[in-house]
Amino acid sequence: MATLELDSITKTFQDGDDEIVAVDDISMSIDDGEFLVVVGPSGCGKSTTLRMIAGLETITSGTISLGDRVINDVPSQERDIAMVFQSYALYPHMTVRQNMSFGLEESTDLPDDEISRMVSETADLLDIPSLLDRKPSDLSGGQQQRVALGRAIVRDPEVFLMDEPLSNLDAKLRAQMRTELQRLQDDLGVTTVYVTHDQTEAMTMGDRIAILDGGELQQIATPLECYHEPANQFVASFLGEPSMNFFDVTLEGDRLVGDAFEYPVGAEIRDDVGDVTDLVLGIRPESVELVEAAGGDHDFEMTVDVVEPMGDENTLYLQFDPDADSEGAATLVATTDGLTPVSSGEAVVARIPEEAIHLFDRNTGEALHNRSMEEAAQQIDLS
Amino acid sequence: MKDDTLRTDGGTATITDRLRRNVEQMTIEDAGLYVVLLLAAGFYLVPIESGLVTSIKTGTAIVQTAPFAPPGPSGFTLAKWQAAVEALLRGMGNSMLYAVPATIISAFVGSITAYGLTIPDWKQSYKALVLALIIAGIFIPYQAVLVPLTQFWSQWAQLTDLLSFVWALGIPDDYVGIVELVVTHVAYGIPICTLLFRTYYKTMSEEMIESARLDGATLRRVYRRIVFPLSGPMFAVVLIYQFTQIWNDLLFTLVLVSTESSPAAPVVLILAGLGTSMEGQDFALRMAGAFFAALPTLAVYIFFGDEFAEGVAA
Amino acid sequence: MSNFYQRVRRAINLSASDDQRVGDGDEGGRDAVRTDGGVVSEDSRNPGSEPGVLDRLAAGIDGRLGSDFLESSIFWIPPFLLMGLFVYGAVIWNFLISLTDYQRFANAPDYSNLDFEMYTRALADSGFIDAAVNTFILLVAFTAGTLAVGLILAILIDRGIRFENSFRTIYLLPMSLSFVVTAQFWLWIYNFNNGIANRVIGVFGLGPISWLGDQNIVLWAVIFALMWQFSGYAMVVYLAGLRAIPDEHYEAAKVDGASTLKMYWRVIIPQLKGATISAAVVLMVFGMKAFDFLYSLVGGYRPPNGADILATKMVREAYANLNWAYGAAIAIVLFAMALGVIGPYLVYEFRRNNL
Questions:
Q1: So where are chain C's domains?
Q2: pLDDT computed for residue B147 by the predictor
Q3: What's the number of domains chain A is made of?
Q4: Could you tell me which chains touch chain A, where touching means 3 or more CB pairs under 8 A?
Q5: Residues C58, B169: contact at Cβ < 8 Å?
Q6: Which whole-number Å values give the CA distances from A101 to A36, A54, A96, in the listed order?
Q7: Does tRNA processing count among this protein's keywords (chain B) (predicted)?
Q8: Domain B79-313 class, CATH top level
């Protein structure tokens, strides 16, 4: 087993006279046996990155190495990599058994009985021995998904690459396969790179997640780090549903001054910010608290504009200025317990706790101050 | 039937269907539609039907009965069919001799050409250029290559000498024309066969091919194990279309075999001169011959009409 | 220069990966897949050999043209060459021959004295001018007429009728027949004494007409027969085009209050532009190949007076009169006409990335 190393990988496409940079100078190192989820909006370069690792796209510059071996110019079939595609890409004219044997037949000199033994073992592992003699067209989406996985597993590769493998399944099956994939990856211990646009998959499945935007790597860290200590405003907004509240503010003395409110901050935070004055204040909806009465500088009297009951929780859209037209006015999104009765038009007091805020440089998007993960953990303990 | 369709109306029927059914409800317009369609069908069938009845008429019946009416019992004869079969049977065999191999070879060659120009990964703009050159070949008027073709086969490629061992077996060396026809039809069949297979291969899942390559298969193995086994439906289309084209072609046979008296003369060549003599034209014989010569293509069309339609529509 | 270094680096990488793989095998691997050395690759077949000039050249070509270029060339280059020689090689050769004075029973043209004499001769030949005019009339009238009939049939058949498949099969049937065969049928239909054509117009008190004997009529009689044979083709192409139009367009037009006729004229037919273009190109090509039909009509090189087209004139000059060079020159004119039709079409498809 080996570490997969991407070093300053860049990919440009030629489109007429324009050069389009699909992947821009990405470096990361995926440890042996690690499950890395690459996530980002569509067009962020995540699939291109995966296809470069697979050898399906050429690399414009940079190197990819597996262990000590640079694999830039090694043809895909010699990279010892297996890939699971979004469409599963099963061979429609072959039975499940033939689908699973194909890779071993083409890439090894193993005798037939050995191949068939490995296929049956893998089928057992995936609970699909009964499907072995059926054709892909006779299988349900979930079954096809398992066969596609089996086809990758049976080859016992150094690295698994998965390109949105669950996105064609319905929601329930997807949740089930998510757990199962994690279990399999734990058992097999094969280095896995998993591409998705779904943040739930990213948060729940990966040992670490790599967040891409515009072809650039935004952050690579554990899911909780990315969530609580985002490297920049993009990461902060990409993870979390509903997404983080952002307010443009200016640091004036010890106060953050926004269009709708002023917010005093302590010396510690001012140290983090340094001499940057154009800032963005970020606060996650679940960090906003509703309190009985205004009791400090961080409490704001607000009006409930819209309530979206989700069952376990309510999503509230709060307005600083009750007279403002709901379009374009500063709105604070907060999530509260689903059982707390709140209705539209009601006046409430919202507290934005100082220890939960994030501050970003408005020009670069870079995070200047994040809540620390320890504090976040403490807060959970207290409540 | 109409009641049935109307009853399902509210359910899953699409708007167009409903719209079309609205048209059906207007019975006068509806009837008119079918009358027009039947008249058109008549228009397409009359020349063929008239040929068929004429082929079984005696000389007097031809003059006395309407051209589209069947002959009475006294005017019925199969003599013309017998004569046509006698005159054309040898030609049928000769046509088979080149049409079958040329069809199979050109379909296969078209398949691998289209594969090489569609599935492997190389510069799209160069692929498109090569394809444009190949597709242009479909539209070349063959007159533009006839004189060089004659030169090539008569002066440059001395097949008659090369195949002397064949003539030694007692086969007349006229049959060199058959070999020339096979090669010629394959060469000029490559463009259309490539185009037909290309449209098919373009729709193949790219991920499936990538998956096969990641599984360790070389391009050759991908063709043999994935693409070729999946090409069945398109092979049916191409084989049928190509067979019809080659069987029906007159120009190349005229130029390469030249005389209908040659032992290697294909059926179209013999048919073109059949029933013409000094005394005038023997229409019954001509019709019988036309039908006999068209039998293979008619059979193909009747049994594989859908594939034929798909081939011409591409 | 940088290209060269890239190639060298690539070559070194290849041999490095060789060593790696051999080492892997020596260690004995952990499982069956890997003990055999992983994958069978080209470079592991002769381990240790220095990458040759050829390998580097190959890497360079692949780098420029795409990673599969060399491996895929075996599939398409031989057929492409064969077809290229027979099509483009022959057209160029034909052009050369048209510049010579090649005629009669000489074995080969004399290429030492090239001029455009055959083309000036063509311009002075009234038979050539007539044939060119006839070719033009035939192409335009046949293509337009066939498209119109095909469109009407397609619209009628697309109206959700019963027995749709049977009607379609009947309309397309003539297309499966050889020109040689259909020529026999039409010869009989156009027969002066017993032909159906004269019987039909006789019902209206007209005729009889000598369809194939009258110089002013014969070309139109031929065009009519060709339309009979190919309108089914136009119908199939239009039908595919109609089926590709979403149902919503019919719906929207109907909701907007358009009458059926207006709906087709304003909404549906404009969307069939693509189908019309491709069908027209193919029909024109069929029209240029009408040689087979005219030859079979008379069983000889000389079509009825008034129906001579370039295709028949070319073959007659070359193979009956043995004026090889003159025939070649006519062929070049015909080729130029074809190019005038298909050249723009192919460029149009190429630009739209449709190839």
A1: 2-67, 123-351
A2: 84
A3: 2
A4: B, C
A5: no
A6: 27, 20, 9
A7: no
A8: mainly alpha
